């Protein structure tokens, strides 16, 4: 079963944008993600509609954050992506005639709903600022530059490419 990595992908991009301190082109973000600029633009368009990011055209343009990292949770971003399924349990048959399979489907549905509710609650507790702070702790532990030492953003250094 293919995993849906959109939430992970967009959180990754948002943290890169936070580090950039200014507009970042779709091409640069796509390179960091191993993706295509069109995919980045399509994904960020939903976040722009929710007011989390903005885009500027022309020379010096690109994507930048339009929100306070401390005010936006992972759940907010999940919802801005269209709230894709978080739990990927499926049924053997959607409308079974077999009573055993009906019981199995009911149990799996209940478990999936409960798991998704717990996951959504946890996503609502974690802000983008918390992710950024975790990144900075990890960077410092690796001997990376501190805030005062960073004057320009280098996607390759931060991303490890």
TrEMBL record:
Signal peptide, first to last residue: none
Source domain of life: Bacteria
SUPFAM superfamilies: Winged helix' DNA-binding domain
Protein name as annotated: Rrf2 family transcriptional regulator
Lineage: Bacteria, Pseudomonadati, Pseudomonadota, Alphaproteobacteria, Rhodospirillales
